[in-house]
Amino acid sequence: MVSVARREEKGSDVNVAAHLLLDLMHQRIDAAVVVSNDSDLAFPVTEARHLVHVGLVNPTPSYPAGALNGDRSDGVGGHWWYQLTVEDLVAAQLPAVVGKLTRPPGW
Q1: pLDDT band (50, 70, 90) for residue 5
Q2: Exposure letters 62-90 (e unless 16+ CB within 10 A, then b)
Q3: Which long-range contacts (CB under 8 A, 24 or more apart) does 38-42 make?
Q4: 89 in the Ramachandran plot: left (φ > 0), alpha (ψ -120 to 50) or beta?
């Protein structure tokens, strides 16, 4: 007998979509950066491109989800895409020692 536990985030894409659209509706933003490769965000990202500049950062090593692709000139234009790299993540890490705190071995 084997026990398997699957850990999945539920609803995070819905929350990102809802907050993006609410921020647009209430005119709280003049640009957006979405860090995701989830094609479920295609509709809100496409709609956002009609109103503000949108940057899309793909945090996965795979190709960008086709549904998230668009054109730099869609809507208001000036949109951009970026593929996050291992080097980006390494450069964003805190030092091994911060004050009295030490990073665990292997991190």
Answers
A1: low
A2: eebbeebebeeeebeeebeeeeeeeeeee
A3: 38/13, 38/65, 38/68, 39/65, 39/66, 39/67, 39/68, 40/13, 40/14, 41/13, 41/16, 41/17, 41/68, 42/67, 42/68
A4: alpha
pTM (2 decimals)?
A: 0.79
User: Residue 56: exposed, middle, or buried by beta-carbon count in 10 A (0-12, 13-18, 19+)?
Assistant: buried
- Helix (H) or strand (E) holding 101, with range, is strand 101-102
Q: What is the pLDDT of residues 89-98, one digit of tens each?
A: 889 988 999 9
CA angle 83, 86, 90 (to 5 degrees): 125
What lies within 8 Å, CB to CB, of 42 at 6+ separation is 65, 67, 68
